[in-house]
Records
---
Amino acid sequence: MKTDDLIKALAADLPTKTTPVNRALWLAIGASLPVLGLLMLTVTPPRPGLIEMLGEAKVMFKFAFTIGLFASGLWLAVRITRPGVGAGPAKYALLAGFALLSAAVVRELSMLPASAWGNAMIGQLAVPCVTLIALLSIAPLAALMFSFRAGAPDSPTLAGAVAGLIAGSMAATFYAAHCVEDSALFLSVWYVMGISAVTIAGSILGRWLLRW
Amino acid sequence: MSERDAEWATQMRAGLSGDGAAYHAVLASLTLFLRGEVRRGFSRYGNGGADVEDVVQETLIAIHLKRETWRPQDPLIPWVRAIARNKLIDSLRRGGRRVNVPIEDFEDVLAAPEPTQHLTERDAGEILDQLKGRQRDIVEAISIHGVSIRETASKFDISEGAVRVALHRGLATLAKAYRTNES
């Protein structure tokens, strides 16, 4: 096919609209919320007394961390799904989230006697934490992967990882309402492990699904 | 932003709001620009067995299918160049090369007309062979034979909507064929 002929076909296809990637992204998040809400009612009900506890610094920080990761993930997503637009300042937002977590860990270590560090870190719910974050992230990850296909990322692997980061942090936010572990140490190990697992899964999927 | 970018961006904006003639014009201008870019990339990194025109076509299809990833307030050329760079790297990788092409290497080059006539005249690969049946007939009619959507619809006795769907799917299939073609 000659290139001039190809252009004719492309111009003829102009009235068939394609979806802007940002709109697809919001749709994916909008579609995931009711699924997560349903899972919250059935699999991971909110802990007793959640509302009263929201005022506590530790609990507040847990949500601030997962929601912060979610927001940095979104910022990364709206950038890197467009060709030639790098992560830019969005990666500093992500780093800032982890810097804050590190600060909270240091503060907790300084407040707890060394003998209590192990218990705070291991907690009672390490395995369910990682498993449930992974479970809750399945629907958002699927929706986000699908939405990212409207984009044209320079690196499909990185884009997949960002989809995983968003899905994992959404899942972690919902899980945080269920989980009774509020230690920053616990957060820094098990929540981060759960979200990282979803991020890695996303990067592997993205490598295959987000090529364009 | 260069004068050339401003002109092409204006045409692209018009195209995105439905002006087919402006869209055709900007794609034609970009074709000349892309030939220069791709040839330059090939001379720097080797061609990995591919033909300039194959990469140009693959880039044009990507520009078309991913046109919504360009924001109308942005300059057009950096976006086009980023797509070309991605497609060039894909093409070099298919040729079995591991490459890391810095974006700075795609300096502005003047869109030069083709020095040789035969390159534009020859068919760039047999990419249409990737399409089958009615889809192929429809893409071929609209591209090679330049038949309108309406005429194509009456020729095959199907609705214009069905022609549009077949055309769009055909183009998406072509993009996919380039991706999976390990030539």
Note: Confidence is low (pLDDT under 50) at residues 109-122 of chain B.
---
Amino acid sequence: MKELALMKGNEAIAEAAIRAGVDGYFGYPITPQSEVMEYLMLQKPEERTGMVVLQAESEVASINMIYGAAGTGKKVMTSSSSPGISLMQEGISYIAGAELPCLIVNVVRGGPGLGTIQPSQADYFQSVKGGGHGDYRLIVLAPASVQEMADFVDLGFELAFKYRNPALILTDGLIGQMMEKVELPTQKERVSEYDQSWVTTGKTKDRERNIITSLNLDPDLQYEHNLKLQEKYKSMEEDVMFENIECDDADFLLVAYGSSARICQKVVELARARGKKVGLLRPQTLFPFPTKEIARRARRLKGILSVELSAGQMVEDVKLAVNGKVPVYHYGMLGGKIHSPDDVLKVLEEKYMGGY
Amino acid sequence: MEIKEIIKAENLVYRRTPLMTDATLSYCPGCGHGTIHRLIMEVVEEMGIQEDTIGVAPVGCAVLAYDFMDVDCTQAAHGRAPAVATGIKRLWPEKYVFTYQGDGDLAAIGTAETIHACNRGENMTIFFVNNAIYGMTGGQMAPTTLEGMKSSTSPYGRNNETMGPPYKITEMIAQLEGTYYVTRQAVHKPGPVRKAKKAIRKAFELQKENKGTSLIEFVSNCNSGWKMTPNESNIWMEENMFPFYPMGDIKVDGQLVKD
Amino acid sequence: MAKAKGAIVVDIERCKGCQVCMVNCPTDTIGMAEEVNGKGYHYAYMKSPESCTGCTNCAVVCPDGVITVYRVKPN
């Protein structure tokens, strides 16, 4: 019996979190994602599943609460938006360095700085390339619907625990605020067994003490540790996810994620109606990036247009994937403005005809 | 007497200070922010210091304060205004520098910056508008939200046990040696408004004496966040906020005021 | 000694109809108009102009600073 609801993307994240058996949420209000915590507080999750929900004094405090709880093996998460995620970068680097699982949700807004509250996709670099200091990567999921907002919570935790790495849901104010039908996941039991090889839950007689740290003063050890991290990130490739929308006979591809992809779905329809064989490759994981998939399709393409609500960030990864074989272009509105299907179509037609 | 005989230039006794810009205030009807902005600008006008005054705006409802006050302003990241103001005041000690912050800005995310600017005794003025809620982002709980008070993140009322009780950061900061003048005021009635204006004037004048930080807390209303009419919110404020956040001077001339 | 004679001028379009002036007027001079301004607010006005003393209480509590006050001193 399917459980259906009509909700906002932000609310879907919150409801899915309770159902995924999440142990704790620590967050701070910021537009356009305050509904996540408001919904959680309203649901009384301490009564539903015993989940802890705490409003911290800041995003810096939130991410450090996550760090502490994650070190005990609990399923914990936070959500914020661009300026707040910037505050979390130090904490995220620590979590990645200490190899802890957790889920962070970024409902991106226009920047830089305090910016706007309108949607944007200009945090791609911050999420996929680093953001915090050091050689680390996050697992990055990119939902394009309220359903995926719900589904990616459990998926995010699955991957985070599989790899002992923080996972980030990179969404935006459009998906966060829009309302769609969603099939809610079934309630999972909260886990009660913790991997005693690393969690700080109390040194019992049968084991050595566990230390959660990212500090390694011995350069040889830190080198080994970094090699291990890099191996881990390479191995994440097996969990790459993407959606293929009419790509198989296409001679021109759009590459877009999240709300930009929703807009591009319409562009594919419009272009095809005008006789152009256009497809949309929609990454659902931005790390691991569907590099191989784009590379293998490149041979048959006239060109690729990366469409993002930014000055062009993901386009660099597309260019790396095709490695010069095919021209790659970028188009996108900046600073919180949203491009329309017609805006994209106009640029597409120029590039399709071989324009520069 | 005909009204038109009264309304003449020579009979003018009060007009809105020209140091408030022409922009319509973006604050909700009845919100104390408008009154407080105006009082600060009246003092700047009366002291003739518009050219030497620099304000630092917060993140919160007053993020747009710089649209309404006709003085040079810097917009600070959430909670960082005291640090931003320190940067300005240290390099321009002869200027009048003030921060204007809400309860989330000053007492949640900005706690460290607030404490340390006051501890260093920066010769500036901190205006702290405490309406026990996060207005701009939609009415979430603040560190100063009262026990039992409903907000969007305390929908069943603030539970002191799980969320911690509200705290009086003003009394805490008054303990620091670096603070010189700490007082709590209100602007919901004419009497308190006139007292508040005197406090603002005193705080600005103290900047010239290099004796330390002045902090004025304004206990104010948020009728939108509290879900009341403006007049209802002012009554509620008197009955509920004032007992917990009492009016009056907390520290004067560098000495804590004994009860 | 006769009371001072006062009058207020309300910037109708800027008034947000919050009614804070009305409850702080010591002589019950102020009322809220039945008409609304361009933003849909019932603006403040002198419903009993003869009782205004020009005390400025209304103007000093007005969050939007929309009130200008005039006063003729007695004698």
Note: The longest strand of chain B covers residues 179-186.
